[in-house]
UniProtKB/TrEMBL annotation:
EC number: 2.7.13.3
InterPro entries in the cross-refs: BphY/WalK/GraS-like, HATPase_C_sf, HATPase_dom, His_kinase_dom
GO biological process, alphabetically ordered: cellular response to phosphate starvation
UniProt keyword terms in alphabetical order: Cell membrane, Kinase, Membrane, Transferase, Transmembrane, Transmembrane helix, Two-component regulatory system
Protein name, per record: histidine kinase
Membrane topology of this protein: Multi-pass membrane protein
Catalysed reaction equations from the record: ATP + protein L-histidine = ADP + protein N-phospho-L-histidine
Organism: Candidatus Anaerostipes excrementavium
Subcellular location: Cell membrane
Length: 312
């Protein structure tokens, strides 16, 4: 009704102005003429006001009907200037967002539970595989089992990263131990692809989360395995610079092109390096990639020296 009040004020102000004009400045003006003019104006304004109130009431009823709906209404009421509409849509969108979040959390919980359930028969299958007497058959069976194990670990890690329960434990970590653990995790595929290893990592301490750092190394070494061709070589070394430590991993393949997937030999989702970048961002580490086509690919992870911060 604010608009109706505004219209009434805008009507009476000009009326007052012309009354004062005629009464004070115009001589021999007839009071009856003014009365007749006032009645005529009031009738016209009354008709206008009635139509105005009817339209506003109709709009208000339409808005109230939409306000009871479960969907957003801003598109249908784009001509309305009302904070209630914006608040209504905000509440609807917040509720939809919360429902989607709960759905995603439920899906993550289901995937996590499913992965843990699958790990039990997978471990049993790996144990049975180790007891097979035929070496050739044992190796043939172990490869898909190891791939399943790696994919399960990737799925679990992906759920943890996206979860609100993602937890980091930053503490001094022996970089050499993390490298060894990652090599052990990938040893089957490294041996299968006949990798030559050159590890030059001293007993360097960095501030990181050992679990996630090992996962990052697993992904990078796994990439080397996926794209390996003839005489692959994996070089890992670390060098300390002022206030930072650089850990480098280099893949050297004879005739390496890094495009196996385009030849149909390997299908990649591209999620591995994405997960690596997400984890390192959360760990506040930096990663850089350098590649020479057909020669090598090198990833450099930079750890900032936080010893001064911890007064060590």
């Amino acid at each position: 009704m604010k608009k109706v009040k505004r219209d009434i004020v805008l009507f009476f102000l000009p009326c007052l102005a012309y009354h004062l004009y005629f009464l004070l400045l115009v001589e021999a003006v007839s009071i009856w003429d003014l009365m007749y003019l006032n009645v005529l104006l009031l009738v016209c304004f009354g008709i206008y006001l009635g139509i105005r109130i009817y339209r506003l009431s109709k709009r208000e009823r339409k808005k109230n009907d939409y306000m009871e709906s479960e969907g957003t209404i801003a598109e249908e009421l784009r001509d309305y200037e009302n904070v209630e509409i914006a608040l209504h849509d905000q509440q609807i969108l917040n509720r939809q967002l919360e429902e989607q979040r709960e759905c995603m959390c439920g899906l993550q919980d289901y995937i996590t539970k499913w992965c843990h359930e699958v790990k039990i028969p997978l471990s049993a299958a790996l144990l049975v595989n180790e007891r097979m007497e035929d070496e050739k058959e044992r190796q043939q069976m172990k490869e898909p089992l190891e791939k399943i194990r790696r994919l399960l670990n990737d799925a679990l890690s992906g759920c943890k990263i996206q979860s609100q329960m993602f937890d980091l434990q930053i503490r001094p970590v022996h970089l050499k131990e993390c490298v060894r653990e990652s090599i052990r995790n990938q040893q089957f595929f490294l041996i299968q692809k006949h990798f030559t290893l050159d590890i030059r990592v001293e007993d360097v301490m960095v501030y990181s989360d050992s679990e996630w750092l090992i996962y990052v190394m697993d992904q990078l070494i796994g990439n080397a395995v996926k794209y390996a061709k003839e005489e692959p070589k994996l070089i890992i070394w670390a060098e300390e610079k002022p206030e930072k430590i650089q850990f480098m991993r280099r893949i050297y393949d004879k005739g390496f092109t890094g495009s196996n997937h385009r030849d149909g030999q390997y299908k990649s989702t591209g999620m591995g390096l994405y997960m690596v970048s997400q984890i390192l961002h959360k760990l506040e580490h930096q990663i850089e990639a350098e590649s020479e086509y057909g020669v090598y690919t090198r990833f450099t992870i930079t750890f900032t020296d936080h010893r001064k911060f911890f007064h060590l």
